Amino acid sequence: MANKRLKRQLLLRKLFNKRRLVILNEDTFEETFSLKLNLMNVFVVATVGAILIIFVTTYIIAFTPLREYIPGYASTKLKQEALEMAIKSDSLEKSVKINNAYIASIKKVLTGDLEYAKLNKDSIKALDAAELDLSELAPTDKETELREQVIKEDKYNVFESSKPKVSFVLFPPAQGSILQKYNVGNKHLAVTIALTDNTPIKAVAAGTIIFSDWTPSSGYVVIVRHKDDILSAYKNAASVTKKQGNTVKSGEVIALAGNANTVQNSGATLHFELWKDGFPIDPTQFINFN
Question: Is the pTM value of this prediction over 0.70?
Fold first, then answer.
């Protein structure tokens, strides 16, 4: 114990033993500067200096542009550009999804594909097995009158769920007799009209042509996009007078009827379709072709 205490006292004496730092002139040995200090002073000054150096270095790295020159740190401009690119890529991804959905609806127009609802066999059997009182299902006079009124109003609606007043009028694309009516059950999602050669085929409403080209199955096809996301398709044409991207007015000639030179040649006919949000509509509900 005595030895340890003695060593501790010697260490404290060395730390606090006063010394003098003297700077002499080399030629004259004249004292130019002197400083009294001890080892404890030197240790404290060195520690404080090291802490200051660490603090200043940390501040430079964290809060000044000089950190961009340190390997591993990205520049502020680069981070901003990366953020802008991420936002743009997200917007482009959304636009691509919207365009893909729109292209899918156009594909339905060209191919005539349509998903039909599947009936539940169990529900059909349940209806057959149920005993219904037909006398209770008979409509009253007021109900019959209301149904007739609704049928008259819906005849001129573009869609079954639309309001009685349509925001724009649809004109007939051509005048002629109907060879084949719109029939969802037979997957005939259009109206086929008999025409003569070189009969002008007109746009039913103002819009933009999004497709105008020849197809092996339908001859020349023109698809016009109208407002409210309505598409009108004109198939089996012999020639077209408008190109993709052109804007047309109501009643403007966009094609001519005639021999379409297709696999199934049916003469001068017009295969006219109407679509809304990727679903077909019966054109005869609001267009008079005769």
Answer: no
